[in-house]
Design brief:
Largest sheet of chain B: none
Strand order of the largest sheet of chain A: 6-7-8-3-9-10
Shape of chain A: elongated
Helix content of chain B: over 70%
Order of helices and strands of chain A: EEEHEEEHHHEHEHEEHHEEEEEEHE
CATH superfamily of chain B: MetI-like
Oligomer: heterodimer
Structural class of chain A: alpha+beta
Distance between the termini of chain B: 39 Å
Distance between the termini of chain A: 35 Å
């Protein structure tokens, strides 16, 4: 295990940010801490980095007890949402910072900085100041700076959160490729399930200061441990009191075992997919079907049809007080 | 129309309050040419007064710089019981009359008090000597560095320092390599203001110094004492010297003043 977090709790005044959290992160993996804001994921990352002290529990990094170590002795690289660029230094000196602190020879620093700037495609910006860079460039600089000291683990706190959608998509793919090149154990915090699913090998779902589920993106999507995880990881709808993914709702023109009668209230064509809004036993629900299916069945609003939900998740596991995100 | 009216009012106001008095001093100083001015400023008494002012202001500025940065970091970066009280107390020297400050210092450090007596017995008198004047001057100039530095510390936030920590920087390295360069402009501005304030301090110093000519006389005290002894040439000359230093400090501070969006 590269990172071991055991029974960590942390409160800020009355607010319990982390409650008895235990997580193991394997070496060389790319893990996402996913959850709604205020769920404790950033606090957990900061506890791992040593930027916050846990009230109870312990942290181990690469087999070394790290709970009492200050951040500068943990061997972690940390990337902040708002870059935390050293504004009074050029890009080159930002990246060189960790090495010059360690009094490495000048020539070695120069070479390493050059390599890293090439890795993050900033070689022509070496002599600029952070204020002369775009958000995406600043974040790549911050990443190069964190990688310069060859950290045992790389921690990214909502690294793309402050960037616009297009740049965010590019950087995601780029982070994935970078990780395949560098192989450093990486943990990143995000509240964007799509980002987590796209980039991470493993996802730790957190909410209310607790770990809700740990698993690969497929496992979480296919076998969510709770209604919360299910609704956080993708769209859901409720049919007969049970949660189901809209694309797992089959629409039939004739009744069959397990099917429920429904009334189509609206059909929205979104390119390849079609969103069918329904009324099932007086409750609103929706199904997602392909254009082909919709055309084949000739669905239109006002039609009376039957719906058959597959792979439903019975709501027994749902605990009190868990609210799915509004989206 | 109103714009011109406002400008006119501002100009007249400044003219009567500031420009005319300063102008008259300059004119009076140089009305007989440079000779008498140089003579008046090179008497041993005058030279000594300048030296005392330099020593007192020098110590006060150094103390206030160190304390000011430390207090600003404490106020901005730390949460502790009594923080708001400290925050309020720092502005006290602006509210309290310097004369009151001087009297208070005599009550605490005077020869007849336990603290002052104890120190005096060990050859370290506070009141009627340089240490008391340094304390008084430090006190009146206390808020200037803190108030210049604190907002900038607030604005730059903690993340750069935290980033430096994860990159291996010790507390000292974070301070010298990240914090200090980030507040450099504001700190210089605060230091210049503190210097100007320290050079011009009169009330508190007048009370604690005992105004011993040739011993505890600063330039401001020298101006007052010369004027009262009808040596107007020396009084005007020294006053002009003070004005020149103050104006130069303010011009420097204009250039150092932190501008919005500085790099």
């Amino acid at each position: 295990m590269s990172i071991l977090v055991q029974n960590v709790s942390k409160s800020f005044g009355d607010f319990a940010a982390l409650h008895d959290v235990s997580v193991e992160i394997p070496s060389g993996s790319l893990t996402a801490l996913l959850g709604p804001s205020g769920g404790g994921k950033s606090t957990l990352l900061r506890v791992i980095a040593g930027l916050e002290q846990p009230d109870t529990g312990r942290v181990e990094i690469e087999g070394v007890e790290a709970t009492a170590l200050p951040p500068q002795r943990r061997g972690v690289g940390f990337v902040f949402q708002h870059y935390a660029a050293f504004k009074h230094m050029t890009v080159e000196r930002n990246v060189a910072f960790g090495l010059s602190i360690r009094h490495k020879p000048k020539e070695e620093i120069r070479q390493r900085v050059q390599e890293l700037l090439e890795l993050v495609h900033l070689e022509q910006f070496a002599h600029r100041y952070p204020s002369q860079l775009s958000g995406g460039q600043r974040q790549r600089m911050a990443l190069a700076r964190a990688l310069a000291v060859e950290p045992k683990v790389l921690l990214l706190d909502e690294p793309f959160g402050a960037l616009d959608a297009q740049v965010r998509k590019e950087l995601r793919a780029w982070l994935r490729r970078l990780h395949d090149q560098v192989h450093v154990t990486t943990v990143f915090v995000t509240h964007d399930q799509e980002e987590a699913m796209e980039v991470a090998d493993e996802i730790v779902v957190m909410a209310g200061g607790e770990v809700k589920q740990i698993g690969s993106p497929d496992e979480l999507y296919e076998r969510p441990a709770s209604e919360f995880v299910m609704s956080f990881l993708g769209p859901v709808t409720k049919i007969g009191g049970e949660l189901v993914r809209p694309h797992d709702v089959e629409i039939l023109t004739a009744g069959t075992a397990g099917a429920r009668p429904a009334l189509i209230s609206r059909v929205t064509r979104l390119g390849f997919e079609v969103r069918v809004d329904l009324e099932v036993e007086g409750e609103p629900a929706w199904a997602q079907v392909t254009r082909g299916t919709a055309d084949h069945l000739g669905l239109k609003s006002g039609d009376r049809v039957w719906v058959l939900p597959h792979k439903v998740r019975t709501s027994v596991a749902a605990s009190v007080g868990e609210t799915p995100p509004a989206s | 129309m109103t714009r011109w009216g406002l400008r006119g009012v501002a100009l007249v106001y400044l003219a009567f309050l500031l420009m005319m008095p300063v102008g008259v001093i300059l004119w009076r100083t140089f009305q007989h040419g440079f000779g008498p001015v140089t003579d008046a400023l090179t008497t041993s008494q005058a030279v000594h007064a300048f030296r005392v002012t330099a020593i007192v202001a020098g110590f006060a500025v150094v103390l206030n710089t160190v304390f000011g940065v430390a207090a600003a970091i404490l106020l901005v970066r730390h949460r502790f019981p009594g923080r708001r009280i400290l925050d309020a107390v720092i502005d006290l020297p602006i509210a309290v009359s310097p004369v009151v400050v001087g009297l208070a210092l005599i009550l605490v450090y005077g020869r007849n008090t336990s603290v002052g007596g104890w120190l005096g017995d060990r050859g370290f008198p506070i009141i009627f000597s340089i240490p008391g004047m340094v304390i008084a001057t430090t006190f009146v100039a206390l808020p200037l560095v803190v108030r210049a530095v604190a907002p900038v510390l607030e604005e730059i936030g903690e993340e750069q320092e935290q980033a430096a920590a994860t990159l291996g920087a010790s507390t000292f390295q974070r301070f010298t390599r990240i914090t200090l360069p980030s507040i450099r402009g504001a700190l210089a501005y605060g230091v210049v203001l503190a210097l100007a304030r320290s050079l011009g301090e009169y009330g508190a110093v007048a009370v604690v110094s005992g105004r011993v000519v040739g011993q505890t006389q600063t330039v401001t005290l020298f101006v007052q004492e010369r004027y009262q002894n009808f040596d107007q040439t020396a009084a005007y000359a020294a006053a002009t010297a003070l004005v020149v230093v103050a104006v130069v400090s303010l011009i420097i501070s204009r250039f150092l003043r932190p501008r919005g969006g500085e790099r």
